[in-house]
Amino acid sequence: MIDNRRKQEEQSLEKLMNEANLFVKYSVQRIGRIEPMLFIHGENGIAVFTPKEFKNERSKDEFANLAKLACIATGADATVFVSEAWMKRPKKGEKLDLSRPPSSFPDREEVAIMMGQTRTACEQRLLPMIRSKDGKFLGFGNEHRMNPDRMKGRFANFIPWGYPPPEVRAAAEAALDKLGVEIRKQEMNQARRTERGQGKAFEM
To answer: What's the total number of domains in the chain?
Structure first.
């Protein structure tokens, strides 16, 4: 039973990662940026949860807390958080400098980051974003994939460890409804479907 559940979660994560990848490429090519978004695979398929604001620490904390409620309400078994981030790689022979945010380094890199999780597994994909000197998006670099043992931070561990019973899910759904929070069912349109760390520090 546990092995079957784990396999199902892995399949859900792979499906979400593919949807997130499509969203990232479509979004950047269409509007030149990526809006933060959480993809959720639950009992009724794929849903998306977006923040009302994402400008300061308080709004980011609020998004993370509401996202956990959304995962309970939907019976989530996999999530993928998508955002833009600054990344700093250490030069050969140097240690990673964690005393400064990645955005403060002149050799920083802009990346699209997809952070996927189930209850038992993690996957991270990075797509370097290449821009001209005037900021125009030119394309993506080679995708990097990682499978860390675990993820830490504000935008990780949205899924509860246990499987919430129906009454707990209903309570979470009612709380979100009272707060006016909407979880949207993901419906990829045809146009979007046809368009196609270790040793790193990130800042979102």
So the answer is: 1
